[in-house]
Here is the input.
Amino acid sequence: MAQRSVDGSSFTLADLRGERRRMRKEAVIKTVFLGTAALSIVISALIVFSLARETFTFVTQVDASSLWSEGWFPRRGLYDIKTIFVGSVLVTLIGMLVAIPLGMGAAVYLSEYAKPKVRRALKPILEILAGIPSVVLGVFALAWISPQIVQRMNSNSALFNLMAAGIGVGILVTPLVASIAEDAMKAVPKALREASYGMGARKVTTCVKVVIPAAVSGLVAAFIIGVSRAIGETMVVAIAAGASGGSLFSMNVFERGQTMTAAMASMASGTDAVKGAGLTFQSLFFVGMLLFVMTLLLNLVADRFVRRVRQKY
Amino acid sequence: MSGIKFMLVTMLTALVATACGGGGTDAEGLTGSIVISGSSTVEPISIGIAEKFSLDNSGVRISVDGPGTGDGFELFCKGDTDISDASRAISESEIAACEAAGVEYIELKVANDGIAVLTSPDNDVIDDCLSFSDLYSVVGPESQGFDNWSDGNALAAEIGATKAAPFDSAPLAITGPGEESGTYDSFVELVLEGIADGRGKDAQTRPDYQASADDNVIVQGIEGSANSLGWVGYAFYDANKNELKAFQIAGEDGKCVEPSPETIADSSYPISRPLYIYVNTTKMEESPALEAFIELYLSERGLATASEAGYVELSKEEAAETVAAFENRAS
Amino acid sequence: MGTSSKALTNSSEFVRDRLRGRRFDTTGFLFRVLLLGTLFITLLLLTTLIFDVVSGGWSVLSTRLGSFLTGKLSISATTAGISQGLRGTFFIGLFVVLIAFPLGVGAAIYLEEYASRSRLSRIIDVNIRNLAGVPSVVYGLLGFAIFVKALRFITGPQSNGATVISAGLTLAILVLPIVIITSAEALRAVPDSLREAGFGVGATRWEVVRSHVLPYAGPGILTGTVLSLARALGEAAPLILVGATTGFLSEGAGYSLSSLQERFTAMPIVIYTWAGRPQEGFRSATSAAIVVLLVVVLLANTVAILLRNKYEKRR
Here is the structure.
């Protein structure tokens, strides 16, 4: 290119299109990138593939009555789905009761109140919290939250309990909720706020009556993504909720319990080795498939809300 | 962009190199790998041996896991592991699985263990000595739903041979190992099976107790409520003696015996059991490292690991029997 | 809009109020206190957590840090070390860097720079967002079925596939969607004028991407990738399914390439296992291991945050 311009001759459109070799290289590169992007579809297919076979075996061979029995004891052939489902729901509920106020509060403060300097100092702290591995929060939930918070709340509480696990999950999800919620509120155009101030509204009025309603679909998305993450959280529950062998159906959050994820982790130490009455190994995949479908639905719904925010502003 | 190119090249070379790598050879010492899995009860002994062994044989790769005796045999009978730790003897169905896969093995007894039946030190409601029928009436298959010790009284009276029953009224909270564990199997076999068979019931515990694969969870659970009941291997009781109280147990002769290294060694404590390792003999033929490992296991220094891990060492005669079994493996 | 006239009178009252100047705004103050309260609780939890593990692990960290870092897994808490856990975590990080980063950035470039608004690219986009939300245990099942079982002949036939290769590949796949999403965000932040300048002088798309877009988006991409690396280093659940060793592991071939096909363990697994040991000594060993893992993960996070702050200022 450089040489040609030295010649001083004028450009034509053909020059802009470039040489054939350059074009071919371009096409190859594009294909490579397309390949990397399409890999995500391959991964999804692999997930479904790896879950489907054993799930199918489980569903076709399991004795239906064992899916609705006194508890989740996979090694005994009792696969009471409601036990671990309710466990998951309870842990998620407790987690969200912690994460929604903490996460949304942090988001509102950071996006509406904090001066840039304060924001720069506080945001990294939330990000550090987001980076704490879940095993660490699991040990913390067991060694600190359970004796210091849960057992003070209810002195009859067991050391291993769903409450402590739920609070641990809540702390884990808080930064995620905060970050999505903050993004949503920052996406609200300045003009809306200025209009509100122009009418003489106070900051709190602007925040609660203007910004939050305007950002509501983003906030809903933050909530749903938080729920999806809490349902999928494994290690906190596996460490802090006890009951790794199996669990009876119970709604008492101050007792040991099991979630779908923790049930998988406790079965899986040495996945190849899972032994039990017939379908124990397959039940692992069945629970995995249920989890996959549940989180997939939640994410699809959340995605819709996120899109709505993007379209609006 | 050359960075990414470099990365890709390195990555590919690395993968190719590893795919062709295989096991390196060490001119001096033993090489190869030893994979051990099975009982979490025996795991500490095997780890202790592995630690001793790898001091002198750094070329041998050893891994030890403890998912549970049953899970361990599942792997062993597929030929995936070299040694299977077991806190009970191999079962009929497992023998069949091993046979079907053509896995040949020898059974070596390496230590003795007792199962301690435990409660909280705060428990002043229940007497200190339990008989098998006392235990059956609160944890056996017919006790499902009992949440008070006194719920078991009728059942205990029906069976007879009680020590502590009739129990006073006290809330009953049970914590024990889960079904993947050899400790569960041994407890069922030693304590519950006799009575259950006699009454035409399946030999298993009630399902509604807090089960855990993690002995720490069990210890915490027993500690956690005043009139709790639970059972763990003696070593775990020994490690947490201050927080727990062990019941004396009365066997068929009706004599109350406390668990201790002595009573377990001479089998006067009714819930005692041998601990085993199962060795894949076909693999041992091929691997001098595996053979040397077992030799260390069965040496005096090796068998002493049992007491270091909190179990009871084999008596002289038992040790001689084990060594003989190993030496006569060809026949 | 039926209430518009009412709203109008309301707002005019507000304007009058404001102009007149108001007394102390109690509601506003309380709201602010509430918000600060939530932040304070979050901060308090974080400091408690860090204080709790550091004080718990202090007895180990202060007396035998060296032997703790270089020692091997052991049944005795007083001599147990984490060298094998660090080794596994190192290799997992390597796999993520070598596999997830190039693939993830490549996919992001395709989605942001090449893809037209076609059906395919929309499907890919939605798919990636969903993959990012799939629980990590489920990725563990994928790793088990594909890498441990089906590809055993590559990942390590002698170790039944339960090797650091399987673990590294599983975690690389786990963080791939995160790498793609964060990189795509960084690319989206590049002003179009920059691209147009490139096209204006006749550059092909790849030339524009290479010389204009990537240098500009580089720090943003790096931030996202480092954050996802930190995520991978802290994951435990998929490793359990892939078959990380929990009991004992001899040193074997150390950091050499052939050691990739051996059995493995990693820091989060060491912590999980030790947290379940009954002996008192393991409580402090667990805390000490947590401190080490936190230092590794938070160091990665801090690097990412500093990078981004620098980058944001430059803009």
Remarks:
- The mean pLDDT of chain C is 85.
- Chain C touches chain A through 104 residues (CB under 8 Å).
- The first strand of chain C starts at residue 248 and ends at 249.
